[in-house]
Amino acid sequence: MEEDAFTDKSAQYLREVESSMQGWSPPALASRVMSLVSRHEQWRGRECLNMNPAEGLMSERSLRLLASDMATRVTEGLPGDKEFPHYRQNELIDEIEAMIIALARRQFGARFCEWRPTSTSMANAAVFFALLEQGDTLLAQDLDAGGNYAYQPSGPAGLVTNRVVSIPPSGDTFEIDPAAVDRIAQRVQPKMIVIGGGKVLFPYPLRELRAVADRVGAILVYDAAHVGLLISAGDFQRPLEEGAHVVTVSTHKIMGGPVGGLILSNDSKIAARITRLMFPGFVQTRDQNKLAALAMTLAELESCGAELAQRMVGNAQALAAYLDDAGFTVLGRRGERTATHQVFLKLGAHAANFEWRCQNANILIPDCALSGDVAAGRRSGARLGTHEISRLGMGEPEMRQIANLIRQASLDADGTAAAGLAAEVRALRTRFPNVHYSLDAVELPDPVL
User: Fold this and answer.
1) Which architecture characterizes domain 311-430 according to CATH?
2) Which of 71, 73, 67 is CA-nearest to residue 37?
């Protein structure tokens, strides 16, 4: 029997949608698309508390740039020395790209910046393809330890090398034990060590890990997809100063920009190999609109990123305390629950019900695997992020209210309280309709010519 590219559930859904479209005119199809987007914007954008750490909130000015004429224009090569197209066609986008590079260098303390990846997964893939060969050993933070799929055998890393060795969990707060890494590294002699990922509560011991990398001749890579703003504008940690050879960053999520990635380094040889690979190996860039939006985002973070980072972390710590008071088991260490914008709840077998009940109340919190869950094939926790609600201007009083709403939603087994809770969430969102920590309300000066 021919194997289907889709799962049975997905294939059935696709058949149902295709069947429902029979007989629709092109205008009817267009109307349906517009309606779906409008409903999405109303529900997700105005009626929900989005606490999914994998998403982000853009300013109005950044969003408008995504719809500019730059959306379909092509630009290939390096700013100031493009390969295609020729003459005047690149001079405007070149300056925008140069601004991105300059701002990223300044904010992250980097000598080199690759600005073109269309996602953090692509950024990580470019690092692997540029710096590894088939047969090289990659020592990477395990999924059970909070790592990402990108550097597992099933992700981009597995396309480059068949030798991926895991760094196991150290406790239940997604931290790394340098001594354990050292023991494994001495045994497997990795070409690269990768740490970081989607679950981050505390800074990593980068200086100790760099010492391990140096002892075995490995490159140390830090996937900072979820903590970019805390690095660039906060006091979380400064990875390049502390020993990382390469840092990859998401430009959305906590950064609040368009979907994309950055690759940062202070090593000229590493940077040159990555830059040579990006074009034409990974991109023939048609993302000028996203680059313009990213430049706007970095300008906003230049203005108020430090204040926003402080608000996100403060809100996460307050929310964690209120959730603890409400009876939840909040992950932490020695009385400290988080040093980032993330909060983790240990829910056991109730994790799936928790996510569904919260979603019924318009509170969007994904369940997640905690340490030990991946190996056991389960998801026993929940991961909350405060970056979107912080950028809406919410503070400590709202964290108390949100913790209470989460508690009530989690207890609503039969759904009888869902409508009332959703109404409370809508009322809360109505009080915070605009994106803060941006340049939306700032009267911009006349352009510098």
Assistant:
1) Alpha-Beta Complex (3.90)
2) 67
Q: Which regions of the chain carry the CATH code 3.90.1150.10?
A: 311-430
- Give all strands of the β-sheet with 219-223 in edge-to-edge order: 112-114, 261-265, 246-250, 219-223, 192-196, 137-141, 163-167
| Domain spanning 65-297: CATH 3.40.640.10 | yes
Q: What's the Cα-to-Cα distance from 227 to each of 56, 98, 257, 259, rounded to whole Å?
A: 12, 24, 13, 15
For the whole prediction, is pTM greater than 0.90? yes
Domain with CATH 3.40.640.10 in the chain: 65-297
Can you give the pLDDT of all 449 residues of the chain as single tens digits? 355 789 999 999 999 999 999 999 999 999 999 999 999 999 999 999 999 999 999 999 999 999 999 999 999 999 999 999 999 999 999 999 999 999 999 999 999 999 999 999 999 999 999 999 999 999 999 998 899 989 999 899 999 999 999 999 888 999 999 999 999 999 999 999 999 989 999 999 999 999 999 999 999 999 999 999 999 998 899 999 999 999 999 999 999 999 999 999 999 999 999 999 999 999 987 789 999 999 999 999 999 999 999 999 999 999 999 999 999 999 999 889 999 999 999 999 889 899 999 999 999 999 999 998 988 889 999 999 999 999 999 999 999 999 999 999 999 999 999 999 999 999 999 999 999 999 999 999 987 76
